[in-house]
Design brief:
Helix content: 40-55%
Strand order of the largest sheet: 3-2-1-4-6-7-9
Number of domains: 1
CATH architecture: 3-Layer(aba) Sandwich
Shape: globular
CATH class: Alpha Beta
Strand content: 15-25%
CATH superfamily: NAD(P)-binding Rossmann-like Domain
Number of strands: 9
């Protein structure tokens, strides 16, 4: 059956790739971006099946209007993709207040505003699938990404609670957790804190690790996302790519071992 999508951050990266994949199979997409001009290629190719909407996800009122516009145009929403976000690089000490607030506004509060705006319509339908685009960095933390990790860890907790709240209403939630892909996340879309020289050794080690790791092709995720939204009982969490598995398995193993080793002290409380 034809599905209707609402996708934030559809101008580039995963948002553009998934919007194109949905449209290419005959679905309809309300594609949002901060500049509608960036969505023109989609409109030129797919015509009235694309509704381009200018949207800054940090504007809660604007989010509500955009969702209402999409429902008015298409009549329903089947798949909501909270994709808009960016990377903030810097040690925790280096991050300015402005950068910290902006990161949380976009990566955490943006998905919250979209989710709140679409839920009345999804509840009325008794159906819908919300995809929350997190990251391997939503389950494990890395030096230079502390505030980004905070935003995605927050999204993970919010989404896990959300899934329990709306599941009985017929609404599904999936937290999508990509590994490293060749998108603009760490390029032109990223923000960088002013460096403190004391951390340069740690920064260099991170750069060396990133250089040694070839990013995956984001186009390869398109068919996976289509299969995911067509699944009758989708999972709460889905990795994209093989990279996250050993990283997260090691992180959880270490957590369990630490909790177990320190259980005698915890029991004294």
């Amino acid at each position: 059956m034809t599905k209707t999508w609402f996708i934030t951050g559809a101008s580039r990266g995963f948002g553009r790739i998934w919007a194109s994949a949905a449209l290419s199979r005959g679905d309809r997409v309300a594609a949002t971006a901060r500049t509608v001009e960036s969505l023109k290629p989609l409109v030129d190719q797919y015509g009235e099946r694309v509704l381009p909407i200018r949207l800054d996800v940090t504007d809660r009122g604007g989010v509500a209007i955009a969702v209402q516009e999409a429902v008015a145009a298409f009549g329903r929403l089947d798949v909501v993709v909270n994709n808009a976000g960016y990377g903030l690089f810097g040690m925790v000490e280096e991050i300015s207040e402005e950068q910290a607030r902006a990161q949380l506004e976009v990566n955490l509060l943006g998905p919250l505003w979209v989710t709140q705006a679409v839920l009345p319509f999804l509840r009325a339908q008794g159906s819908g699938h919300i995809l929350q685009v997190s990251s391997v960095g939503g389950l494990a933390a890395f030096p230079t990404l502390g505030l980004y990790n905070a935003s995605k860890w927050g999204l993970e907790g919010l989404s896990e609670a959300l899934a329990q709240e709306v599941g009985p209403l017929g609404i599904r939630v999936t937290i999508v957790e990509p590994g490293p892909y060749g998108t603009d996340w760490s390029g032109v879309s990223a923000d960088h804190a002013a460096p403190i020289p004391a951390y340069e050794v740690i920064r260099e080690a991170r750069r060396a690790g990133a250089t040694a790791r070839a990013p995956q092709d984001p186009q390869a995720t398109a068919d996976v996302i289509l299969e995911l939204v067509d699944t009758e009982e989708p999972p709460l969490r889905l990795f994209l790519g093989e990279y996250p598995y050993p990283v997260i398995e090691a992180a959880y193993r270490q957590r369990l071992e630490t909790w177990d080793a320190w259980r005698p002290l915890a029991a004294k409380a």
